[in-house]
Amino acid sequence: MKKSIFILTGFIIFLTSYSSVAQIHLGPKAGANLTKLDGKSFKDNFELGYQLGGFVYYDVTNFIGIQAEVIFNQTNTKIADDYTDIIDDAFDKDKTLNYISVPLLLRLNTGGLLTVNAGPQFSFLANSKESILDNGKKIFKDSDFAAVVGAELNLSPIIVFARYSWSFSNISDIGGEVKSQQIQLGMAVKIF
After folding, report:
1. Who wins on pLDDT, 144 or 147?
2. The predicted structure's pLDDT at residue 117
3. What are the residue ranges spanned by the domains of the chain?
4. What 8-state DSSP symbol labels residue 85?
5. Residue 179 and residue 37: Cα distance in Å, rounded?
6. How far apart are CA 179 and CA 176, in angstroms?
7. CA distance 84 to 28
């Protein structure tokens, strides 16, 4: 995680030192996450969570840009009801996973009002030190790799966004493949 933050910081410093600083924009963002974990141990429905973070983007041309973000993502899920009473008593069915996500996106500006973006997202489990009964390192892997596709409505300085993210990584550490899907809805404010 430290390596990714270092790379992102270096990228931001590079962009801000570039001569056309007027094309660099940054600001805070917040929104809701609807997340579903696909796996036989989890309920097959979307659960509500939230996200908080910030973004920076650089318009290379009027049509193409690059956007980087650092986001705190809360993912909620429920374990399926097909376990025995012993397991029901041992585990809390509601699970919360807190991720630090770093999406690196290509921006396609369609004339000012609408922007389409897509790219990879690297996520690191922030609550991996908890015990197996709380979520824990023994149930979920420390990282996730996903693809993100979305659109932004630019109402300067307000940005309204919607995204869909799907995981390529198996995030389960205790058997059976588990992958995540996430719908992200929210707002950002361009302060620069």
Report:
1. 147
2. 96
3. 2-8+24-189
4. H
5. 6
6. 10
7. 45
